[in-house]
């Protein structure tokens, strides 16, 4: 993020810059002979005997606690919300990743019909509650709106769809690729 000139020189974001630069990320560690996953703030150190191999930024954390204010997405003054950059309490298409107690990874995509009268999509608190019901202990919001999409077994699933279910192709800046590991020959 420090290399993003538009971010670093934006006067409206200056009060939140320290929080923005320490937002949460989904991490993959190599720990001795095992691989471990975690969701942690960017400046958090890896566990001892672990090497950080990959990280994907996002935010805020949804579980175990919602960290909207801690990560600079939400700001309130005198009990009034003055900044909510994600529209956290408005239904929207959302994507998230979570880790269960046994270390399993769960991906969630909630779609939204943009012209729907029934407020399809989910709020961030609703997304957190849904993931908790799935047994997720740590969860991270990844993206929302038309940036939310998933490609699985040759099919694209879009976050924002029209009344016919058609999504809009939109370039995204980051992706998470998951591949099934091949068994090691004996």
From TrEMBL:
Source organism phylogeny: Bacteria, Bacillati, Cyanobacteriota, Cyanophyceae, Oscillatoriophycideae
Protein name: Phosphodiester glycosidase family protein
Phosphodiester glycosidase domain span: 77-178
One Pfam short name: NAGPA
Taxonomic source organism: Oscillatoriales cyanobacterium SpSt-402
Keyword terms, alphabetized: Glycosidase, Hydrolase
InterPro entries cross-referenced by the UniProt entry: NAGPA
GO molecular function, one term: hydrolase activity, acting on glycosyl bonds
């Amino acid at each position: 993020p420090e290399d993003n000139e538009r971010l670093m020189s934006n006067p409206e974001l200056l009060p939140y810059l320290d929080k923005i630069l320490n937002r949460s990320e989904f991490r993959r560690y190599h720990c001795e002979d095992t691989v471990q996953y975690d969701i942690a703030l960017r400046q958090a150190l890896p566990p001892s005997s672990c090497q950080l191999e990959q990280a994907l930024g996002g935010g805020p954390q949804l579980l175990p606690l919602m960290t909207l204010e801690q990560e600079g997405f939400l700001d309130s003054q005198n009990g009034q919300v003055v900044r909510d950059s994600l529209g956290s309490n408005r239904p929207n298409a959302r994507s998230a990743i979570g880790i269960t107690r046994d270390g399993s990874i769960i991906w969630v995509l909630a779609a939204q019909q943009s012209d729907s009268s029934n407020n399809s999509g989910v709020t961030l608190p609703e997304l957190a509650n849904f993931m908790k019901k799935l047994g997720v202990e740590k969860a991270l919001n990844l993206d929302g709106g038309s940036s939310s999409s998933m490609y699985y077994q040759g099919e694209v699933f879009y976050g924002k769809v029209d009344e016919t279910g058609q999504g809009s192709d939109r370039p995204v800046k980051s992706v998470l690729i998951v591949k099934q590991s091949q068994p090691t020959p004996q």
